Amino acid sequence: MLNEREARAIEEIEQRLRRSDPAFAQRMSAWPGGRPFPTVAVLCVATFLVLPFIALLGGPHAALVTADVVAITVVIVLVRRHLRSSGT
Q1: Do the beta carbons of residue 17 and residue 44 sit within 8 Å?
Q2: I want to staple 55 with a disulfide (CB 3.0 to 4.6 A). Which of 6, 18, 63, 84 is the partner?
Q3: Are 40 and 77 in contact (CB under 8 A)?
Q4: Taking the chain, what is the end-to-end CA distance rounded to the nearest angstrom?
């Protein structure tokens, strides 16, 4: 736990950062509750685990379609994050 002097020093640094580079400060405080949910990582791990079963049960075409759908979903997630972070 920080003592009172250290907490004041950190608050002063944060205030100077907000004044000198507001865009950077906004990006760093975009998720006040912490980091966002790792959607891309979860999609990739789930695909890695499920894809062999899909290939076994549905054949190579089903596996290819599944991989394509997951790739498109990852691209959509990344584009939405980029648009949200750029403010457009």
Answers
A1: no
A2: 63
A3: yes
A4: 38
Per-residue tokens: 62: 């089903």
Identity of residue 69:
V
Is residue 51 within 8 A of residue 66, CB to CB? The reply is: yes
- Cα–Cα distance, 77 to 38 (Å, whole number): 10
Encoded amino acid at 2, one letter: L
At 72, list the tokens.
């498109």
Residues 6+ apart with CB under 8 A from 27: 85
Query: Using one digit for the tens of pLDDT, what is the confidence trace for 49-85?
Result: 999 999 999 999 999 999 999 999 999 999 998 888 7
Angle (nearest 5°) at CA 76 between 54 and 27: 130
Token duo for residue 73: 């979903």
* The pLDDT of residue 32: 58
Report yes or no: 51 and 63 within 8 Å, Cβ to Cβ: yes
